[in-house]
Specification:
alpha+beta, about 325 residues, two-stranded antiparallel sheet, single chain
Length: about 325
Amino acid sequence: MPFDQVLQRYGIKEGWQLIQGQSGWNNTTRFVETGGQRWVLRIYETHRDADKIRFEHEILLALNELELPFRIPLPARCDDGSTLVQLTDGSQRWACLFTYIKGHRPEENDTSIVKSIGRATGQLSNALGQLKLKSKPIYPAYYEMDSAHPLCAPEKVASFCSIPPSEFHGEAGELQVIGEAIESFRAQLPQFRELPHQLIHGDINHSNLLISDDDTGSGIAAVLDFEFCTHDLRVMELAVIMSGLLSSEQAMDSIEAFLSGAGEQLQLERREVEVIPLLVELRILDVFLHFLGRYLDGVDGDSVLREQTLSAYDGLKQLNKLKDGLLKLSFRHLTT
């Protein structure tokens, strides 16, 4: 991979060292050290759409102009003033460079920071609600399932879930439940379009956060990975995080701590709070559809989709068990 050609565009020409970084489903990350300074090099792996990246970077630049209690990635500018560079290896992939933010990702099972995550989420939601951008978002809202997952047309999803391929016969029962939930959810779409909308991060979770290395208890040090930021339901930001907390051993305690922190910063309309269980379900189904699309596109094998199918099924079961309590906690902390 021609890292040297990318770095030269950002004025880093020699004496640099590349260090392996954590990579996720969608991007590859490398740390670049040069002259006592560290940068983060990011390569976008799952799309080749420069407009998506430019929209993300416009948000990051705007947020860095605000006074927030945590840091936001700051894109560096290359020699022509832009913030992204296309790789020259024929892959048509894009790369960009960010200033390094000190800190480490919290452990997935670390519940001690859940209230801090809620507080930071509320603060970020308020900040995103203030932004006035020139560009339009590329990604559709979560609830626009068909637009968000073009490979997963309703009839294709219904067929896959009701009559799965032979390699998924062992998960036929789970797929039937998921397919019925997706079909049932479509009837809910009209009500969502009338609720308050704004920019949301859309993917806040432990892997997209940093906490301080010095363990000062100061809370969230940075919020990362704004790639899927779009115009969506304001309350969807909270539902995304709550869906991830469902799987924790003390799910209701974690959710209450999160909502307590969020409620310190953010108050919602009652009609927004009423749909939170539905939106938590939407997040669970959206993750399944994302990986179904990757499977249909040949990106992932059947083992990945099998794992995500079981995860979605377990999430739906857990939500069904806890949704009444979840709704009570949401009203307690998010409304006056």
